[in-house]
Amino acid sequence: MNKFYHSVYLNEEKCVGCFSCLKRCPTQAIRIRDRKAFIIPEFCIDCGECCRHCPHHAKQCRRDTFEAARKDFPYLVALPAPALYSQFNHMDDVNIILSAILLTGFDDVFEVSAGAEIVSEASHKYIQSHPGQWPLISTACPTIERLIRVRFPNLISHLLPILPPMEVAARIARDRAMKKTGLLSGQIGIVFIAPCPSKVAFTSAPMGLAESNVDRVIAIKDYYPLLLSRMKDAEKDTRPLSASGSLGKGWAVSGGEAAGIHSTEYLAADGIENVIRVLEDIEDEKFEPGLQFVELNSCSAGCVGGVLTVENAYLSKTKMLRINRNEPFLRTDSSHLKHHTLDDFTWSEQLNYEPVYSLGETIFESMENMEKVGKITDALPGLDCGCCGAPTCKALANDIVMANRKASIEDCIFLEKQ
């Protein structure tokens, strides 16, 4: 069962089977067999933690290149993630960065943070009008959506059915470009400058809509050198291109989205392990009634901590807060919404539970295999050392029962020693 597109993949030539990724994966999607890692695709949520911690750079992320996008479309629009602004030192005016983007070869630029301001308004209205679904969980991070779909099915009904800012900005940018140039939709390339692999995966297999409005996704760290080379020229001829204020740009850091919904009854957590603990507590109803909104970011410090960025996450967070001191609170021009209503930015398709951890095709097969897993687990030492190539003893037992994962009881070095 592999219903998801994946940006994260393994470069086998670089992998030495060092176990660094094994313990870092939050969904137990990685195994080590025959001195090589492999990824169980249905478990992977494209959080990028394995890419972040692999010392040999064997875990990598699929993404597009600016050069290829430039060749594919006669007219190219850049959608910079707000996290991009925090990658530069001594940056007080984001218009310098936006002007530099045009100098690199883009024909137009539209901020994702402008889409974030629209999403903030739509989210606020939805939250206030649907108290029966409280707490509503943010859907801005695709990794969190996918995690809930495979591991927390009881929380799917709590997902906020609003499109992420990237999609809202892409839709507005395309309409604006078509009106400005007279070109057809297919002649306009919408390119998102992304901080993380989950955004790449989302555009290929979007959640909440049938097809993404984004045509290509390039990584901040790939585009950064080209952009940096044009900054001095942009400083000499800076254009007023920014369409968002501190509310939208604040989405780059943890807590920024929650601040935009104008509610004091919220919770914000970042870092995938912290997120999982929060989701477990929500599922167990450990929070008092009245919690309205939960903002969750799989990357530490928020999107500024994405694995496809170049700057230290916490330094980036400080830079982002400094940039926002010079920004108005809200700047999105209402003319962008002239041909849209807030309903245009809600889900067109519902998300369903994906039972990727199921041990069988039927309930009876699953129960039979669960009994087998229990017996094998009882025979194992319970140390969860990972030396067998699975992250825990129970994971090894699951792999043995699911015969396609190349595992056997002899993989346990302690039983072999006995």
Ordered list of secondary-structure elements with their pairings:
Elements: E1 8-10, E2 30-33, E3 36-39, H1 49-53, E4 59-61, H2 66-72, E5 75-80, H3 94-103, E6 108-109, H4 112-129, E7 136-137, H5 142-151, H6 165-181, E8 188-194, H7 197-204, E9 216-219, H8 220-228, H9 231-236, H10 246-249, H11 256-259, E10 266-270, H12 272-283, E11 293-297, H13 313-325, H14 363-379, H15 393-401, H16 413-417
What this model shows, in words?
It contains 16 helices and eleven strands. By secondary structure, the chain is α/β, with parallel strands linked by helices. The longest helix has 18 residues, at 112-129. A four-stranded parallel beta sheet has the order 6-5-8-9, with helices on both faces. It has a three-stranded parallel beta sheet with strand order 7-11-10, covered by helices on one side. A two-stranded antiparallel sheet has the order 1-4. Strand 10 (266-270), helix 12 (272-283) and strand 11 form a beta-alpha-beta unit. The radius of gyration is 23 Å and the shape is globular. Helices cover 37% and strands 11% of the residues. It has helices spanning 49-53, 66-72, 94-103, 112-129, 142-151, 165-181, 197-204, 220-228, 231-236, 246-249, 256-259, 272-283, 313-325, 363-379, 393-401, 413-417, and strands at residues 8-10, 30-33, 36-39, 59-61, 75-80, 108-109, 136-137, 188-194, 216-219, 266-270, 293-297. The model has no long low-confidence stretch (mean pLDDT 92).
